[in-house]
Each structure stands twice: as structure tokens, then as C-alpha cells.
From TrEMBL:
The entry's keywords: Membrane, Mitochondrion, Mitochondrion inner membrane, Repeat, Transmembrane, Transmembrane helix, Transport
Highest taxon listed in the record's lineage: Eukaryota
Native species: Ficedula albicollis (Collared flycatcher)
Keyword Glycoprotein: no
Family recorded in the similarity comment: Belongs to the mitochondrial carrier (TC 2.A.29) family.
Entry's localization field: Mitochondrion inner membrane
Protein name per its UniProtKB record: Solute carrier family 25 member 14
Record-level GO cellular component terms: mitochondrial inner membrane
Catalytic activity: maleate(in) + sulfate(out) = maleate(out) + sulfate(in); sulfite(in) + sulfate(out) = sulfite(out) + sulfate(in); (S)-malate(in) + sulfate(out) = (S)-malate(out) + sulfate(in); sulfate(in) = sulfate(out)
Principal location: mitochondrion
Membrane topology, as annotated: Multi-pass membrane protein
Solcar repeats, residue ranges: 1-45, 53-138, 147-237
Record bears the keyword Membrane: yes
Amino acid sequence: MFHALFRICREEGGRALYSGIAPALLRQASYGTIKIGIYQSLKRLFVDRMEDETLLINVICGVVSGVISSALANPTDVLKIRMQAQGSLFQGGMIGSFIDIYQQEGTRGLWRGVVPTAQRAAIVVGVELPVYDITKKHLILSGLMGDTILAHFVSSFTCGLAGAIASNPVDVVRTRMMNQRAIVGSTELYRGTLDGLVKTWKSEGFFALYKGFWPNWLRLGPWNIIFFITYEQLKRLPF
């Protein structure tokens, strides 16, 4: 990971580390907002109090909210991955790039890889949000911690690790499927997520499915900690 970090900085400059930052920010603004909104709304349809929530209810709500939010935000994910893969070779701004993809590949181009993206989101959100809620619930109800920033930190750290472990195999295949149009032209390497998982395992071994795990966790971990601590504090505002 650090070798790749230094090599990118040396060959392409520090700005290359932030390739795709604009669509990434747009994706988080849309995906994250829709995800947490649907998740909390669905939970309130089942139970009214945190104490009554169960793991099954939270998982169902997480899976549904992950699928819907990721499907809606998929075009931003496609652009982000292509900008990161092509680095300095990528030309044009964000809006122009959306238009170019649409003109060259049609609507399907913007939603390329939407199935593995939704599957990945179902896994990530179906693991992260329930793990956060259940961890926080037990920390508070057991008396180990109060409803404090420390409890939010421990819960978010735990859910980030769980999400990275659960999602990395699908993440590897999803990234390859989204980027295969830009790399190999019209030839598709994988017909679907399961096909990609099987082919990767057979040709490269099981641990190939966990390529990029550490940077994945280093991304998910801090993101979840910042997100949940901020979210919990915003919930306490008097409006």
C-alpha cells in the first residue's frame, strides 16, 4: 500500500491521490444522505424505540437502504473509478465527463456495474449500520458506556472493520467490472458478480479477493468514525 502511495506521488504528483474527488464528494452527498434517511425511516416502521430493535430488523433495513441509495448514485461511482484508473490521462470536467459517457455508451454506461454496486452496498450497509446500532445499544444498555462520543467512536470503529471484511471481495469485482470498458474495449471479462468472484478465485487465489483490504479499511474506518460521531452530534441539535 505504501509503495503504491509513494509511487503515485513520485510519478503523477500528489494531486493524483485525489483523482475523482469531485464525483466522490457528489456520491457521498447523495448516497450517504439517501442511505441514512431510508435506513432510519424503515426502522421506525418496525419499532419505535432503540431498545426494541433487533439484529434482523436492522439488517433488513440496511440492505434495502443500501441497494436503493447505491443504485441512484451509481453514475457518480462510475466516473470516480474511471478518473482514478486513468489518472492524468483523464480529460475533461465532471459534468462534461458524464455527458461523454452518456453520448458514447448511453444510459447503460452511466449505470455500468450497478448490480455489483448494489450488491456491495447491500453487504456494506447491511453490515455496517446494524453493527453500529447493535454495538452502541449493548455498550449503553450494559452500562459500560453512556451515550457519549466514546461509545460512538467504538461503535463506528467496529462497524468500519466489519464492513471492510464483508465487502472487499465484492469491491474487487465491482471495480474491475466498472473499469473493464475503459481497459479492454468491448470485451467483457466478467458476466456478473458471481462470475467475477469465481474467476478471480480460480485464476488468482482466494486472497486476491482481499486485494486492497488495508486501504479499503483505512478509508472505511476513518469515514465511519467521522460520519457517525458527526451524525450523533447533529441529532442533538434543537431543530
